[in-house]
Specification:
The structure is a homodimer of 319-residue chains.
Chain A lengths: L2 H8 L16 E3 L5 E11 L10 H18 L3 E11 L4 H17 L3 E9 L3 E11 L14 E5 L4 H9 L7 H12 L5 H6 L6 E5 L3 H12 L2 E5 H4 L13 H10 L5 E6 L4 H10 L4 E8 L4 E4 L18
Parallel strand pairs in A: 3-4, 8-11
Antiparallel strand pairs in A: 2-5, 3-5, 6-9, 6-10, 7-9, 8-10
Helix pairs in contact in A: 2-3, 4-5
Chain lengths: 319, 319
C-alpha cells in the first residue's frame, strides 16, 4: 500500500467544520468572529511517551488526548488537528487500530482531522491541535494571584504506578494494575472542565510532567509562590488505598509522577462555590490542594502543618 | 542543558504577530477579519528527507522551507509555525546552527515561531505552518479547466542531480554539484509567486514528490487530463547544459526528481500576459509546459510533437 492509499484508507474523512480538509497542499479554516485560536503541538516517541507494549488503539487515543489536554489547559474548545506519522513499515493492523483510537476520541470532541503527513522512519507521532476561545478569555499560566486557591482535577500518580509495574519496580494486584494502566494509556483530557473554568480560574496548566513541575511553570510565569498541603494531596492517588505503600512513595508519585493529563489551576478564594460548580458541570472532580503566596518558593506542609523537606524533581526529557 | 533551557536559548523569541507565543500550554492567534487560515504540516526524517551530511543550518532552512512551500501552493501569506523536535541528544552546536537556519528563513517571511515540543528520540523534525488568505481566494488542486495552460516555476531536477552525486551514481564538476546541492538543501519556497497567482491560477500544487506525481494530483482532483511538451521541459534542469547526459535521463529527473519545491499551476490561456507579470512581480521564472485536456491521462509529446512512451513514476514514501 502506497502513501496516498494509506491516507485515503485510514486518515481521510469529510471534515465537518473545515472549509477544506485532508487532500490539498493546505487545509483551510474559516475562524468565527470574536474567537481566538489556541494552537499546540506534541510529539510522541516510543520508549519515552509510550511503551512498545501499548495497543495501537490506545496509542491513537493518547496521541490526540495529550494535545487536547493542552487545549483544555487554556479553556479552548477543540476544533481540528493535523497528524504527522513516521512509520517503520505499513502495518494495516496497526493502522486500523491506531486510527480507530484516534477517530473515537476525535468524534467525542467534534475535532476534525484536517491535514497531515506520513513518511517512513522510526515510529514517531506528532499532532498539532487547534481550538477556539472567545477573545481575551484564554486561561494562561501567568495570572495566579497571591491568596488564590490551588486546585487539581481528577487523580494524580496512577499512570506512574502503571509505569513502575511495567518497569518491574512494583507489583500490585491485577485490578489495580489494569485501572492504573488505563490512566497511563487512555488519559482523559479535561476539555469540559477547562471551558467551565473560563472567567473563574486565574491561571491553569495541564499536568504532563508531574504536578510540581507544571505548577512551577505557573508560579514562575505569575511571579508567585505556593503552599501545598500533603493532607489534601494524599487521596489523589486513586489506587492509593489499595496499595500498602509508604506514604512518601505515594506522595512522590502524586507530586512528580507525570503522564497525568489533569489540570492544575488557581482561582480566587471568593469563587470556591463556582469552582465546585464548574467541576460538577464538567463531571470532573476538583480538589483544593493549597494556595498561592508571595515570593517564589514552593512549600509542602505535612499532615501536622509543618514544612516537609522534599527533593522531588519533575520529568525532563533531556535530564 | 534541560528541555526548558534548550527552548529558552534556541527557540524562544517574542512573537511579532501572535497574541501569545512560545511558553504556555497553547499559543494564541487572533485571526484577521475576512481571512481564512491555511494550515499544513510536514515531518522530516533523516535518510529520507535529508542526508546525515547536511549542515544543521541548511536543515533548519529546509524544515521550514518545505512547509512554506505548501502555503505558497495555496496562495497564502505565511504567519506562524510550530516546531516539534526529537533529538538523539542535546548538541549545542547543532542547535545553534539549526535555529540560525530556521530563524533566517522565518524572518525573511515574517513568520513567527509560536509553539513547539522537544523530546529525546531518533532525529525527527516536524513543522506545522499557518498562513492567511482572503476568504475564497485560496489556490486549490481542484480548479484546473480544459484548455488551461500548465506552468511550473523555477527549475526542476537539480536537487535530484545532487542526490545522485551523493549516492555515487553520478559525477559532475564541483561548481555544478555545489549549485545542485543548494537546490537540494536550501529550497526556495515560492511564497511571493503563490500570492501573485491569486485570481489568476485555476489550480496549483507544490512539487515535492516530482512534477508528474504532483501534477497528477491536480489532474485527479480536477477530473482532467494533460499534455506536456518535452521541448518546453528540457531546459528546466538548471545544470542541464553543463552535463553531458542522455536527454532521457535529464527528462526523467525533471519529471520525477523530487525535492524541487517549485509550483505547478494552471491558468486560462487568456491570462498569459498576467501570469508572466505575476512571475516578474515575484521575481520567479515561470514556464508554460503544456495544457489541460479532456479525460484523465497525461501525454508527453517529444520534440517532434509525437507521444513519448514513458514509465516515469513519482516518489512514494512507502513504495
Amino acid at each position: 500500500m502506497g502513501e496516498f492509499d494509506l491516507i485515503d484508507r485510514y486518515f481521510k474523512r469529510p471534515a465537518a467544520q473545515a472549509v477544506l480538509g485532508v487532500g490539498d497542499d493546505c487545509a483551510l479554516w474559516a475562524p468565527r468572529a470574536g474567537m481566538q485560536l489556541a494552537l499546540s503541538t506534541d510529539m510522541l516517541v516510543e520508549g519515552r511517551h509510550f511503551l512498545s507494549t501499548v495497543s495501537p488503539e490506545a496509542l491513537g487515543h493518547k496521541a490526540l488526548a495529550v494535545n487536547l489536554s493542552d487545549l483544555a489547559a487554556c479553556g479552548a474548545k477543540p476544533c481540528a488537528f493535523l497528524l504527522s506519522l513516521a512509520l517503520p513499515r505499513v502495518d494495516e493492523n496497526w493502522l486500523a487500530g491506531f486510527s480507530k483510537g484516534l477517530w473515537t476520541l476525535a468524534d467525542q470532541f467534534h475535532c476534525d482531522l484536517i491535514g497531515g503527513d506520513t513518511t517512513q522512519g522510526p515510529l514517531n507521532l506528532n499532532i498539532t491541535v487547534m481550538g477556539e476561545v472567545p477573545a481575551g478569555q484564554a486561561l494562561l499560566r501567568s495570572g495566579a494571584q497571591v491568596g488564590d486557591d490551588i486546585y487539581v482535577s481528577g487523580h494524580l500518580g496512577d499512570a506512574r504506578v502503571a509505569l513502575e509495574v511495567f518497569r518491574g519496580n512494583l507489583s500490585v494486584p491485577t485490578p489495580v494494575f489494569e485501572a492504573a494502566r488505563l490512566r497511563m494509556e487512555r488519559p482523559t483530557p479535561r476539555v469540559a472542565l477547562g471551558q467551565a473554568l473560563r472567567g473563574l480560574a486565574t491561571s491553569a496548566a495541564d499536568i504532563s510532567d508531574g504536578l510540581l513541575g507544571d505548577l512551577s511553570h505557573i508560579l514562575k510565569a505569575s511571579h508567585v509562590g505556593a503552599v501545598l498541603e500533603a493532607a489534601r494531596l494524599m487521596h489523589l492517588l486513586a489506587c492509593g488505598e489499595e496499595l500498602a505503600l509508604p506514604m512518601q512513595d505515594q506522595l512522590r508519585w502524586i507530586l512528580t509522577g507525570g503522564d497525568d493529563y489533569e489540570l492544575v489551576f488557581t482561582a480566587p478564594a471568593a469563587l470556591r462555590e463556582q469552582v465546585t460548580q464548574a467541576g460538577v458541570l464538567a463531571q470532573t472532580p476538583v480538589t483544593c490542594i493549597g494556595h498561592i503566596t508571595n515570593g517564589s518558593g514552593l512549600t509542602l506542609l505535612d499532615t501536622e502543618g509543618q514544612p516537609l523537606a522534599h527533593d522531588f524533581v519533575s520529568f525532563d526529557h533531556f535530564a
